[in-house]
Amino acid sequence: MAAKSDDEVARTRLEELRLDSNRIQELSDEELYTSDSNADYEDLGPAIPSEADNIVYVNRMMPIFDDLQTETSRAQQQTLDKILPYLEGNPSNFPLNSFGIPKLQREKHVKFLIQGLGDKPAAYTTLDAARPWQVYWCLAGLTVLGHDISDYQQKIIDTLTDVQHPEGGYGGGFGHLPHLAPTYAAILSLAMAGSSAAYESINRRTLWHYLGRMKQADGGFTMAVGGEEDIRGAFCVLVALSLLNLPLDLPPDAPARAQGMTTFLDKLDEWISRCQTYEGGISASPGCEAHGAYTFCGLGCLAIMGPPRETMNKYLDMPALIRWLSYRQGAPEGGYAGRTNKLVDGCYSHWIGGCWPLVEAAVDKNLWNRSALGRYILSAAQDEKGGLRDKPGMRPDAYHTCYNLAGLSAAQHNYKFDEKMTGDVGKGSFGAPFHWKGDGLFEGDKVWDEEDVVEEVHPVFVIPFEAAMACREYFEAKDGF
Amino acid sequence: MTKFYHDDPAWADIEPIPQDDTGHPLVAIAYTAEYSEAMGYLRAVMARNEHSERVLALTEHVIGINPAHYTVWLYRARTLEHLSIPPSDELRWLNPIALSHLKNYQIWNHRQAIVDRRDSCEGEADFIAQMLDQDAKNYHVWSYRQWMVERFGLWRDVGEVAFAEEMIGRDVRNNSAWNHRFFVLFGGRKKGQAGEGEEEGKEEEEKEKEKELVQREIEYAKQAIRQAPQSQSAWDYLRAVLRHAHLPISTIAGFANEYNDVSPPRSLHALEAQLEIYAEQNKVDEARSTLEALAEFDPVRKPYWTYRQKELVVA
Ligand SMILES: [Zn+2]
């Protein structure tokens, strides 16, 4: 087996496939003719595509392989060996939908995420600095599944109030220093909790001062005082400013004022442009490698700074970006990889998949293969016991569950940006994200039934639309902090 | 070895601040007694803004239990600065930790702060190489290397180019290594900066050198493509070098054709280059049939090739 080149493997597979499909054809013809009446068939309902059809599909998607073996090609081959059985068959024995693909295991995933919010043994101590993240991933995942989270409202408020820092922003835990990652997760979680109690638990005045301390002289933002500067920083800051309707101006005590900066947006557009690499994707900071998660953050920033059609076309080379995003979709896997020549991973279902609604609002519709992504998520990313994962053989976790589900939602729904920015919410600075609307279900080539369809997700905030709108509306109506 | 503070006379003056939860919080972790207590003492020293040798030891203890704890790293960095600990001492302490926690964000930010303060990148390239031996595409490690290039002005540095070359030699598909090569060679010269303020004769000389470099890199990318024509990394590098030098895509027409003379082609990237050559030459029909071939041989990206079709008509 090891002696076989990838090319040979692919060729052998193709031959197997030809034999398989011949055999299937013979079998079905035979059955048809020996059957007493066609009525028997109609009683069975529409024919469910079988494993053979999946094998035909996988083989059609199989790329051309080079002969040369390197660490990358070996890792890719091992990954394919793990994933293919899930794309072709149904090793988890899930019930299948009318496309012959495992149904969305909604109840199991809900149970998994509810457990995710519960008590953890000491082995989870490494999560201690990221508890708001865990809260966000579980809540966001639950809302994508259509599960009502209102029972958690008070617990969300209490848990996050405990980690809010007296000098502004949120930390990973009680008494931890504030940091933009937990701040981002906390604010989105409180927006999902929804209610004046949740909104008012956020100290917006100290938060605004905290965010101001992150601004750097080159236009970007650090994740913490003394922390790393990367595009996550910019995205986290803009999400907070936008959802909570905070002022565009830097607070008077922002250190960047000494460098002549006056607003949060100073030189940011330019800085984001510099993060687009020669490959077309966006990197953590200028000069680094293009990467899916940072690309989503970059596009998210631009979608907060104004209408996507304006900001993205102005600050990015869109054809290069679209090309890079397209190439991240793995074949035959259908899932996305985060970088060139890396492996598919379920979390990029969102990090890359979630870029498409933003890009489509800026350029054109129907740019990507939604059905192939749906296949990866439903067939390969669902864990037998609930929760979703990076890939078969990996343990599911709240992070991969949340972002696989958000990616599934991006594949299933259409969104529309109201260029005229009408509507009552989203006036003033950072108001652009409040002019998105759901635009019905994707009805093209798909592999899911109605019962596999998850909820709409706000393309910028990755929480329910109503949660984002209600939060902004509340603070637009409020005077001062 | 478990370490406690309540019975340690060196800590007798500190009243720990325990975690104070409202009710039963979400994602409540059943911490070990050791971690709970260490965190209690950490919160207490942070509250009194203490930066001392014993705080340094405490941060080491907490990092040992939970290296993903950014608060401890940030506080340790401030303490080092207060105590004026020599950066080299800290690096010696940091190295084994970095090697056993490859995917950790904090370590690299911490290292960056220390090396920045030391104002020298001596030994860093070797250490990074050691890390990449274990995880050749580690994003944080490569990003750190790019920071080092920028901070210490290693643009077009022979050692950096050789390093990228070595990594590409080991795995021609290592995209991080290609990205680094591009960054080192072309990342430092932003538009408008090249040649600025230089004497006239020198400018000509520079231009000639630049041309040679571009030619060398085109050839370098081509030999890499010959090894693995379906790998995107070298193709994208080649395209980027052409773009950087304002050379048309038809510069590589003959080369691309080497891979397109059979069906299916030996490289879809060559076919894509062919598409762009046709588009550049306004050969719309040829471009269209090339796009159809791309959609056939690369069906997962069919919507994308269809979009390129539309763009073609518009252009
Ligand atoms: Zn992942």
TrEMBL record, chain A:
Q: How is the cofactor bound?
A: Binds 1 zinc ion per subunit.
GO CC annotation terms, alphabetical: protein farnesyltransferase complex
Q: Which InterPro entries match?
A: FTB, Leu-rich_rpt, PGGT1B-like, Prenyltrans, Terpenoid_cyclase/PrenylTrfase
On the tree of life, the source organism's domain of life is Eukaryota
Signal peptide positions on this chain? none
| Entry annotated with the keyword Metal-binding | yes
The reaction(s) catalysed by this protein are:
L-cysteinyl-[protein] + (2E,6E)-farnesyl diphosphate = S-(2E,6E)-farnesyl-L-cysteinyl-[protein] + diphosphate
Which family does the record claim for this protein?
Belongs to the protein prenyltransferase subunit beta family.
State the protein's name. Answer: Protein farnesyltransferase subunit beta
TrEMBL record, chain B:
Q: Cross-referenced SUPFAM superfamilies, in alphabetical order?
A: Protein prenylyltransferase
What Enzyme Commission number(s) appear in the record? Answer: 2.5.1.58, 2.5.1.59
Recite the UniProt keywords alphabetically: Magnesium, Prenyltransferase, Repeat, Transferase
**Annotated Acidic residues bias:** 196-207
Names of required cofactors: Mg(2+)
Q: Name one GO molecular function term.
A: CAAX-protein geranylgeranyltransferase activity
Q: Name one Pfam family in it.
A: PPTA
| TM spans (from-to) | none
Quick one: where's region Disordered?
191-211
An example Gene Ontology cellular component term from the record?
Answer: CAAX-protein geranylgeranyltransferase complex
Name the family the entry cites.
Belongs to the protein prenyltransferase subunit alpha family.
> Any idea what this protein is called?
Protein farnesyltransferase/geranylgeranyltransferase type-1 subunit alpha
